[in-house]
Structure formats: C-alpha cells, structure tokens
Fold this protein.
Amino acid sequence: MLPLLPLLPLLLVFLVVMLLVLYRREGHEKLWLRLPTLDEYRQASSQPAEQPLNCKYCHSEQTWEYGLESVMDYRRECACLACGKRLWRTEQASMPVS
Ligand SMILES: [Zn+2]
C-alpha cells in the first residue's frame, strides 16, 4: 500500500478528468435527444415524403448529417448549412460496407 501513496494525486486527477468526460458526453446526448426524429420533423413540416426536407427556420434544402461525437457515431443529427440550426436526429444501425 505504501508504494501507491505517491500516485494518489495522479489517480485523483485521472478520476476527475474521467468524470468530466462522462458528464460532457451525457450532455451532448441529452441535447441530441431533444431534437425531433426524422419522422417527427417530417410530420411537423407537412412536406411531401418524396421531396427533400427543408430547414424549418430558413427553408434551405442544404442540410448536413454528421455523427454526434465522431464520424462513425450511430447517433446522427442533421443541421442546416445555411443558418446552422440543428434540425433532426436519426440512428444508423451500421455503416455501409463498400
Ligand atoms: Zn436553415
């Protein structure tokens, strides 16, 4: 036990950093869960299903889908390229294999 005593401050710093990372990650997911799903967004917009969805804020058709925390994240969200507002969320079960 005595040889580990000098490592105690380092261990405490590591635990604090891990708690901050987990807290931040949970915050991103909470914001993501507040977005409407793609189906909810489409129903609220009353646009025909065969047309691309427009931004409900500026009516732009230019949208960008990205992973919540990384490129490969299954939690996807879509934002408007014109005004930058976050529009809807989707889940992608697996990335396509080419
Ligand atoms: Zn927009």
